[in-house]
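2024-03-11 09:14:02 INFO worker-7 job=invfold-0412 stage=load source=structure_tokens
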């Protein structure tokens, strides 16, 4: 079985955290990736050592910001 990689496109991400909540193995967490005015932008980050490649985060993202590829 090929190992998969999760790719997150933060430019369209609305930081809703649905992907974080949907992950069955807690392989996603919100991380600080910059600032917009006075308020920080939090975006999902993949913990690759925990990710099992199930694709549930891909299916649950309402903005289609997450994709999955084979490594």
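2024-03-11 09:14:09 INFO worker-7 stage=emit residues=71
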């Amino acid at each position: 079985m090929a190992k998969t990689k999760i790719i997150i496109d933060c430019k369209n991400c609305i930081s809703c955290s649905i992907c974080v909540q949907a992950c069955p193995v807690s392989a996603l967490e919100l991380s600080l990736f910059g600032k917009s005015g006075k308020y920080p932008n939090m975006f999902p980050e993949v913990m690759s050592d925990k990710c099992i490649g199930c694709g549930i985060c891909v299916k649950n993202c309402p903005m289609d910001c997450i994709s999955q590829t084979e490594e």
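2024-03-11 09:14:09 INFO worker-7 stage=report msg="The domain at 4-70 is CATH 3.30.70.3270 (Alpha-Beta Plaits)."
2024-03-11 09:14:10 INFO worker-7 job finished
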